[in-house]
TrEMBL record:
Listed transmembrane segments: none
Cross-referenced Pfam families: APH
Taxonomy, superkingdom: Bacteria
Protein name (Swiss-Prot/TrEMBL): Phosphotransferase family protein
CDD domains, per database record: ACAD10_11_N-like
Domain Aminoglycoside phosphotransferase, chain residue ranges per copy: 94-296
Length: 376
């Protein structure tokens, strides 16, 4: 999907129907409460859905004055498992796993994780499991149009402000990796044999097999898996709690300071560099797109050498095998992009080309990584 293209369909749900059902469910948790101002943000994700709403209640919290009959509780955000009818990006949406991860991160680290309020595992009320958390106000670097494009708040910021945001964002990873005891996140270990990295890659292979089931396989993705084996780290290092989708587009900023860390559905126990590779590559993904569309972008922002140096300074751990981990990030992203492209085909928004690799938006950069020329 080019940055200027319309967003593909991500749901078949009716927002008004969801709002009515949400109010009915809310009354079971807070009798008399009502969900008001229910909206779906334009930045709604490509996997789980997000709803924003306020809670109105006649008695809680107590009125500020006798002249007020009702108050509004803290603003809320709801994460709803993907619509099964919308050709989902991932095969499984484990909302209890996300909910538990956020609780662990909040308990054992000082990361600004939104407070989780309720978990609903019964799909009956809204059609799928969901959880509710407090909503944090602020700004999020956009994906569409990408924050590397001219005209958005991050691109327009001063070099000093962007440098502050970059350093603070890398600090999130450093603190997460150092502060949360791995044994408290053992529920995030992937099944299978081998160490945490081997299990992580094996899970990605299984995901790829699911994506291409019944369709033409991608020679480029399979070449990338083969290249990973050639670059495999001799010592991957001990696993830590990985955020998973570790990128600035999943952070709410107050000014240029992180105010909330969002989107934990890809969390896992893995080497530190899995998160770092994802952070580095996802920025390069947007930067490469921006350059391809004739803009300069932000070439000095979140550069690989600066990310590695800052992380080493904060943790004492010098990132290693980053050619492997940035390739792995590009490969993982390619599988997601392939699934998103097939969803567009499913809804009649695109046609299948003769070469399935061209469905991968960043197939050029992925091929360069496989060939070992991307970072030259």
């Amino acid at each position: 999907m080019a940055p200027t293209a319309p967003r593909p369909r991500t749901t078949t749900r009716d927002p008004e129907d969801i709002a009515r059902r949400l109010t009915a469910w809310l009354g079971t948790r807070l009798p008399g409460a009502k969900a008001v101002g229910v909206t779906v943000p334009e930045s709604n994700g490509m996997s789980s859905e997000t709803l924003l709403f306020d809670v109105e209640h006649p008695n809680h919290p107590p009125p500020l004055s006798a002249s007020l009959e009702r108050e509004v509780l803290p603003a809320c955000a709801l994460r709803l498992a993907a619509d099964p009818a919308a050709y989902t990006v991932f095969p499984v949406y484990d909302m209890p796993r996300q909910y538990r991860t956020m609780r662990v991160v909040a308990q054992y680290s000082d990361l600004p994780v939104p407070k989780v309020l309720w978990l609903e595992e019964d799909p009956g009320p809204l059609g799928a499991p969901f959880f509710v958390m407090e909503r944090v106000e602020g700004r999020v670097p956009p994906d569409v149009m990408p924050y590397t494009y001219e005209g958005n708040w991050l691109h327009a910021a001063s070099d000093a402000d962007r440098a502050h945001l970059e350093a603070a964002s890398i600090g999130l990873l450093a603190r997460l990796h150092d502060q949360v005891p791995p044994e408290e996140a053992e529920f995030l270990v992937f099944p299978g044999e081998g160490d945490a990295l081997r299990r992580h890659v094996t899970a990605q292979r299984a995901y790829y097999d699911w994506v291409v089931d019944g369709r033409t396989r991608s020679p480029l993705i399979e070449a990338a898996f083969d290249r990973l084996e050639q670059l495999w780290p001799r010592n991957p290092g001990p696993p830590v709690l990985n955020w998973g989708d570790a990128r600035i587009g999943n952070v709410v900023y107050d000014g240029f300071e992180p105010a909330a860390v969002l989107d934990w559905e890809m969390a896992a126990l893995a080497p530190r560099e899995v998160d770092l590779g994802w952070t580095v590559y996802l920025h390069r993904f947007f930067q490469d797109l921006t350059v391809a569309f004739g803009q300069r972008g932000l070439p000095d922002f979140l550069r690989r050498d600066r990310v590695e140096a800052r992380y080493a300074e904060l943790t004492g751990h010098t990132p290693r095998d980053m050619d492997f981990h940035t390739l792995y990030a590009a490969l993982r992203h390619a599988i997601v992009m392939l699934r998103v492209a097939y969803r567009q085909v499913h809804f009649g928004e695109a046609a299948v080309p003769a070469d399935p690799d061209t469905l991968i938006l960043h197939h050029g950069s992925l091929r360069a990584m496989v060939q070992g020329s991307y970072w030259d």
